[in-house]
Amino acid sequence: MSILTVGTVAFDSIETPFGKADRIVGGACTYISWAASYFHKDIRLVAVVGDDFPQFELDAMRSQGINLDGLQIKEGEKSFFWAGKYHENMNGRDTLATELNVLADFDPVLPDSYKDSQYIMLGNLTPSIQMKVIEQLTVKPKLIVLDTMNFWMDIALDDLKAVIKKIDVLTINDEEARQLSGEHSLVKAARVIREMGPKYLVIKKGEHGALLFHGEEIFFAPALPLEQVFDPTGAGDTFAGGFIGYLASTDDLSFENMKRAVVYGSALASCTVEKFGIEKIKSLSIDDINDRIRTFEKLMTVNMESLVK
Amino acid sequence: MSILTVGTVAFDSIETPFGKADRIVGGACTYISWAASYFHKDIRLVAVVGDDFPQFELDAMRSQGINLDGLQIKEGEKSFFWAGKYHENMNGRDTLATELNVLADFDPVLPDSYKDSQYIMLGNLTPSIQMKVIEQLTVKPKLIVLDTMNFWMDIALDDLKAVIKKIDVLTINDEEARQLSGEHSLVKAARVIREMGPKYLVIKKGEHGALLFHGEEIFFAPALPLEQVFDPTGAGDTFAGGFIGYLASTDDLSFENMKRAVVYGSALASCTVEKFGIEKIKSLSIDDINDRIRTFEKLMTVNMESLVK
């Protein structure tokens, strides 16, 4: 199977109660691609950077099996930059700076070799750009997953709704689900959102886990309680990458396998937040991932053998 | 097995975004006893009410197998009264009135027939009163569970710490765990709190589920995503009642069975919040409970058969 990943490849400056990191590599597509790369080796990246983006980071991605033929490198321009500061309790963050740079006029062009991709992961980005990617596909993909955020609901709701119509799985957080649906109950919100197009909805609740909705079914995967969350940046993107990576590697779109994909996404996200930026997601081993999955199993598993009489 | 339940039996006035209920029956011990009564028939209640408390409510409890020999009825006095209003998103509430009435000088007296109780559920109440109950036990119980809240951490921390030393299981919410421990990470908070005495800690996270900590083990039970939460009042008390009721009925204190007890507690709590006050917890059937448990199983269960290679 092939995975197409789309999104930002960028620099972040991050401040959390535990430290500061200045102009480190980040971006939705970076986290997504690294996370998916542990499951699958045919990953096709679509993104744009300036000529300030470090060559060794691109080399590291290539060695990991990430195809960069769809990466545009703009000479004389700068990569997208975001700076943010997390609140004391890590439950919120303030954006300190957003410099669009190369992203301002990003026109995604799919190399011909990408146009038959089977699993499509549209990372958080302008909805009209996400749509342009879908329009260039020449073969109907097996699955299109889209991640987005409240920002696009505020400024580009019509474009967002248009692209949401075309996808199979939407991943958003709980507040975004409430905003998009106008419903407070997540059960009702899920119903409204799935009527907009996607058959599956993943509601990410950060430290409170993730919900998967499909038909009348609901599955919940917890987040792993951690000793220390150093940096929540990229957790949602990592989740998305692990989710689609696992699905593509198993090529099984049953609800049962979707549930497993949610646990794999959650497991990888729990790794990402333990270090700053992409440090941890770049340096995992298969054993690390399997150990983390075993920890999730212990956290979640109970045998409800006997009912009350 | 026998269960001793201690706490308030009272009146509540409740306002939520979905309606208002004036002077309805509530109180921690009421919810706890009703919830436990579905599992077990030897329930011994210790509480105090005024002569304003409706006889038919007491009769209903007696018919359900709840022993009221330890209920003090104070002639010419009024029952404890609490009035509160929930915020629009149900995530918080304001207390509008608290009238201690009979609770002001409550001196719990255990009937002799209660003193050998094996499972003790100390509902949210003044820590020194919880302690007085423990001191009257003549036979070492199998399990003491204590529920409390931030209010007692603010005004009676030393008394609270003294009683926490004597118990086996503490149930509090996430913010209270952080306050009591001074740690933000719940993993660290759990370690600090268990050093205060209890071998087991349950951290209740409301709509985000509940965590059970013991030794190096952690178990997570989700809350059921609901169409509508009408009234969160009593959810934590109901959880505690279901938890201890299930444990007493199975008389099995293994970690595996504690996990099941957390799911039963969560299942009953998910019922309570669907109606105002005790309306729903008073009218459950065994089939209702077992159906709810099956729903929880579907929500939680995933087979992580194959690991990544």
Brief descriptors of the model:
homodimer; 309 residues; alpha/beta; UDP-N-acetylmuramoyl-L-alanine:D-glutamate ligase; nine-stranded mixed β-sheet; four-stranded mixed β-sheet; 10 helices; 35% helix
Describe the overall structure.
2 copies of one chain form a homodimer. By secondary structure, the first copy, chain A, is an alpha/beta fold. The longest helix of chain A is centred in the C-terminal third of the chain and has 18 residues, at 255-272. The first copy, chain A, has helices at residues 28-37, 55-63, 127-135, 150-155, 157-164, 174-181, 186-195, 235-250, 255-272, 286-300; strands at 3-6, 10-16, 19-26, 43-50, 66-74, 81-86, 93-99, 119-122, 143-147, 169-173, 200-204, 210-214, 217-221. The radius of gyration of chain A is 18 Å and the shape is globular. In chain A, the strands form 2 sheets. Chain A has a 9-stranded mixed beta sheet with strand order 5-4-1-8-9-10-11-12-13, sandwiched between helices. Chain A has a 4-stranded mixed beta sheet with strand order 3-2-6-7. The first copy, chain A, has a single domain, classed as UDP-N-acetylmuramoyl-L-alanine:D-glutamate ligase (3-Layer(aba) Sandwich). Chain A starts with a strand and ends in a 9-residue tail after the last helix. Chains A and B meet through helix 7, strand 13, helix 8, helix 9 and helix 10 of A and helix 7, strand 13, helix 8, helix 9 and helix 10 of B.
